[in-house]
Amino acid sequence: MTVFGFLKKRQPKLFVIGLDCAVPQLVFERWRNELPNLNRLMSEGAYGELTSCTPCITVPAWSVMTSSKDPGVLGIYGFRNRSDHSYDRLMIATGTAVKEPRVWELLGQAGKRVVTIGVPGTYPPRPVNGAAIGCFLTPQTVIGNGQGAKKSATFTYPAELSQQVNAWAGGEYLVDVKQFRTDDKDFLLRQIYDMTRQHFRVVREMMHFQPWDFFMFVEMGTDRIHHGFWKYHDPTHPKYEPGNPYENSIREYYRYIDGEIGELLGMLDDSTAVIVVSDHGAKKMDGGICVNEWLIREGLLTLAGEYPAQPAALGKLKVDWSRTKVWGEGGYYARIFMNVRGREPRGAIAPEEYEREREALAERIKSVRGPGGEDIGTRVFKPQEIYRRVNGVAPDLIVYWGDLFWRSVGSIGYPEIWTFENDTGPDDANHAQQGMYIHWHPKKKSGGRALNGLQIMDVAPTVLKYFDLAVPADMQGHAIPLE
Question: C-alpha dihedral over 169, 167, 275, 122, to 10 degrees?
Answer without folding.
Answer: -100
